[in-house]
Amino acid sequence: MVVVRISVNKMIKPWINFAFLYQEERFGYLETVLKTLAEWPVDDIKIMLAVNQISNEKLDKLFALWARTKLSNVIVELIDISTINPYFLQWKHKDHLQEFIDSQYTHFIYSDADIEIKYGVMEYWVKTKKLFDEYKLNFIPGTFRTEEFEGVVRSSDITYRTNIPELKIIKIGTKKFFSPQEPFQGISIFNKEMAEEHLHSPYVSTDSVGVYGFGYSETGISGYIFHNTPEGFISRVLFPIDNYTKCWVDHLPSNYAANPNKEHGKIHAHTLFQKIKNMTR
Questions:
Q1: pLDDT tens-digit map of 49-66
Q2: All domains of the chain in start order, with CATH
Q3: Is the pTM higher than 0.90?
Q4: Which of 95, 183, 201, 278 could bond to 227 as cystine, CB 3.0-4.6 Å?
């Protein structure tokens, strides 16, 4: 029998905050998300789950779920949202940014609890951010949310409103990237410098809601991409053109793709990236 050993990356210590509006039918998504994180080859990982107020019975079910995923170092945060907008859960992670900055952890991730993030996404982000920093460019490595529906991987957030021939293409070193016209990010990733920057930006506050037409929850997740945007660009987000699947995260419910009345989830993701790649040849 051949034993395959996965080397542990001691340079990445992620702190991950999830927002989970308690619904038992979404437990399966949360379990998939946590089991994937349990496979990350890192020494230390911190997970904080922000949930709305729940009963002891429901809390017991959550603890049973975490036990099945074999994850350690899990912190549970209970938030009473009975009198406020439930989407406040998608802003609550900002309260922990200073604690992250002062901690031993190297990267802070915010995500809804139904998005599967494979370790390759973290590797891609770290390597690409290093490339941007080497060239002193204020860009952010983008993550691209996908949904699998009817056997096809589809774009959750880029729609037919995107005009592919008018996309801005940029070459950094030997790598090519494009700046999306619809830049929403399904997850947020910060290193410590970016977390510090975000804490001192307008987008840490709900007063920024509406930037680029984003609503309450969208601004909470993605508002940071508009702070100190490079001149001539819509946002700081860039997507890779080569090896593009490295930046993909899976929106497990696939509810946009399955809903014929939604414009999202309709474009085939591979087709989209291949068309853009063909433009650069």
A1: 988 877 888 888 888 888
A2: 14-279 (3.90.550)
A3: yes
A4: 201
